[in-house]
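look at this record:
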Amino acid sequence: HASLIPVFGATVFIISTYFFHISFNTLKISFQSIPNYDVKYLFVGTLLLLIPYYLTFGFPEGLSELSFETIYDYREKMAEKSNSYINYSYSTICKWLLPLMIAFGLHRKSFIWTFLGVICIMYLFVVTGNKITLFILPVAFFFALPLNLDNKISIVLIGLVILTFVSLYIIKPTNFLADNFIRRMLFLPALLNQQYIEFFTEPIYFSHSFLSKLIEYPYDLSPPKLIGLHYYKSVDINATNGIISDGFINLGVTGVFLFSLLCGALTALACKMNIQSVYLCVYFLLIHSFIDHAFFTSFITHGLIFLFLIILFFLVFYIIIIKTFSQN
């Protein structure tokens, strides 16, 4: 009895990505006039952006409180110390800048950058309790490592990643992989799509966000908290979901079509930028952002605007970057 609207949205996204990609090739869109900057400045800037995190959180004591069973309570406790800077910079740093730092270090065999990237991501996990940080690490390593059997470094690093997950399971048996990689990425977004479509029978026309001063919002709680309260009996559950849910609650089926179309165009544009394969983790995380966050939230709070700027100014002309580091 499930609605087919999410199937419609996913189909529009896939088809539009394909046709926009063909269109961009036909139009011969070029980024050659855009200056390219040394990525070392990008990574040094990333480390500087983390200074306010340390000034705000320090290094938390009592890490024994942090476990997968109590992680949401821990996250709420740490959120009380947060501020606007951390709320808006977190995704840009954690989802875009640090994975690129890890990938760059692996590719250029400048393992100090990889080490710093891993340490910074683990620190962000400790001070926020956000599980997405642990999800990002294997994604960054998977796409960045050259899967070549003759590459001993790759074999060792892949082995270490596998050993880490096996060790975690032995020390504390959980369904971590199934819970975070299968349930959280596949089943939960699909379930939430159905719940959003079932609950919001009339479009709310962005009255909960940037049109709140023009259109009266008919509810007391935000859409994610409404879903959390109605279906999961807790106002503390923030049931955020992606572009299909967001498009439907704001503009109905028209919104699903429009947001899926726009995200297809953005994905095709990112592909057209033709960054080096070592940085392909950004494409994976881009799609994850579309699945997990509202359209405009992805751009502002979760840093998609900054991602495209990073690709344009630092990653597009990777041949120039390689030459620069080779000369140095």
Observations:
- The longest helix spans residues 84-108.
